[in-house]
Specification:
This protein is of the alpha+beta class. It contains 13 helices and 19 strands. It has 3 domains: about 80 residues, Dna Ligase, domain 1; about 110 residues, ATP-grasp fold, B domain (D-amino Acid Aminotransferase, Chain A, domain 1, 2-Layer Sandwich); about 160 residues, Rossmann fold (3-Layer(aba) Sandwich), CATH 3.40.50. The strands form 5 sheets. Strands 1, 8, 9, 10, 11, 12 and 13 form a 7-stranded antiparallel β-sheet that branches. Helix 6 crosses helix 7, helix 8 packs antiparallel against helix 10 and helix 11 runs parallel beside helix 12. The longest helix is centred in the middle third of the chain and has 20 residues.
């Protein structure tokens, strides 16, 4: 799953016919002045306290953290943006703010669609905000099987069970249909609107906030996804991580990278299982890992080369472990060609000085791939290469100067 920041989620709501407050996402207060010149609704708030300013980051409890300012005019919004941007919260430096119009309302509602094993489940409640948490037993649900869409009657019935009446029940059903269309067509896994409110003046439902999770691996099907996903690690993605994510979205198979500052052992494992296996083994022996990474599903060699280059660029590393079990269909020779090209490039740039490489792998074309790896020793690389007959953990023991268990 990949999480979207609020502004990107709101833009997708608008795309699928759901009203949200008008908003702008900015990285400095100066941008607000410029945007006010081209946005009438911002100009109208010059002397009216009708703006909301929030940190545009993947953080919970923004109000409690002082990262939300409600009921400010344009000058007040500029002041709030200056106070919010640059703040360090839970190790994350706030880099953006979202400024939106206030929509006056009396009641708050809850609406959600999420993926379940049988298909999707739509949830509705006539109370929203923090109230929904203490009234979870009053949330009503209706299910949609895989490949199907909810019917209007189904959604109206669910809305009425949730306590909505008359025209409002119809409106909630219609809004829910739009929400499901967004979920279904945008490869959603979880989308929550809390609160959903009724703008009495326009007699329209409005999503004031959003939590949206999409299938990040489906990005290749969505050329209009120009946004970056929100980091799930309490900080923004690094440039290297974003570059690998972009490559991962375009290729068959998978390449992944998350940097972990301060580690001495870099990992370049084949497959998600091996990535966890090697990370655990390093930590268990008292080592520190410099990253999480994996390549799997037989990705093209150029993608593996790009991943290798980023891993070789990690600061302060002393070892690189290229490990994996016995592959079923990933071509060891082809993927090793990418790794070797990445090693050569990094070595020419001085990134592998005093770095030792450890290799253990098996699978299709393993002998040719391992032989090519061994040739690097003749080029001056500090490298040791092992085949399928060496237990996976042994190269970790060797790298950390531990005695291999006999």
């Amino acid at each position: 799953m990949a999480k979207l920041l609020e502004g990107n989620a709101m833009a997708l709501f608008n795309k699928w016919g759901m009203r949200t407050p008008r908003f702008v996402v900015i990285s400095s207060a100066e941008q607000l002045d410029t945007l006010a010149d081209s946005n009438q609704w911002l100009q109208e708030c010059k002397d009216q306290d009708k703006l909301v300013v929030k940190a545009h980051e993947a953080l919970g409890s923004r109000m409690k953290l002082g990262l939300v300012k409600v009921g400010v005019n344009l000058k007040g919004a500029e002041k709030a943006v200056n106070e919010i941007i640059g703040r360090n919260v839970e190790g994350l430096s706030i880099s953006q703010a979202i400024v939106a119009e206030m929509v006056t309302h009396d009641d708050e509602y809850f609406l959600c669609v999420k993926s379940v094993r049988e298909g999707a489940e739509i949830l509705m409640a006539k109370m929203g905000g923090i109230e929904v948490e203490s009234n979870w037993d009053k949330v009503q649900r209706t299910s949609v099987e895989v490949g199907e869409k909810p019917t209007k009657k189904q959604l109206v019935d669910c809305a009425k069970k949730a306590g909505f009446k008359g025209e409002l029940a119809e409106k909630v059903a219609d809004y829910s249909m739009h929400l499901f269309d967004c979920y279904d067509n945008e490869d959603g896994t979880y989308i929550e609107i809390n609160p959903l409110i009724l703008d009495a003046a326009a007699n329209e439902l409005v999503a004031l906030d959003a939590v949206m999770m999409l299938d990040g691996d489906a990005k290749f099907r969505h050329p209009d996804w120009s946004f970056s996903f929100a980091s799930e690690f309490g900080r923004a993605y690094t440039e290297a991580e974003e570059q690998i994510m972009e490559i991962d979205s375009r290729v068959k198979g998978s390449v992944k990278l998350i940097e972990i500052p301060g580690g001495k052992v870099a990992l370049l494992p084949a497959g998600g299982g091996a990535s966890v296996f090697y990370a655990d083994a390093v930590v268990n022996l008292g080592g520190t890992i410099a990253n999480y990474a994996e390549y799997s599903g037989d990705p093209p060699s150029w993608a593996v080369e790009a991943l290798t280059d980023k891993i070789c660029s990690l600061p302060g590393i002393k070892h690189i472990i290229v490990g994996g079990a016995i592959a079923n269909f990933t071509d060891v020779k082809a993927t090793f060609a990418g790794i070797i090209a990445g090693f050569r490039k990094a070595n020419s740039e001085g990134k592998l000085d005093n770095v030792k490489i450890w290799v253990r792998r098996g699978g299709p074309n393993e002998q040719a791939g391992l032989a090519a790896m061994r040739e690097l020793e003749n080029e001056g690389f500090d490298i040791e290469v092992y085949d399928r007959h060496t237990p996976l953990t042994d190269i970790v023991n060797m790298a950390l100067s531990k005695e291999v268990q006999q």
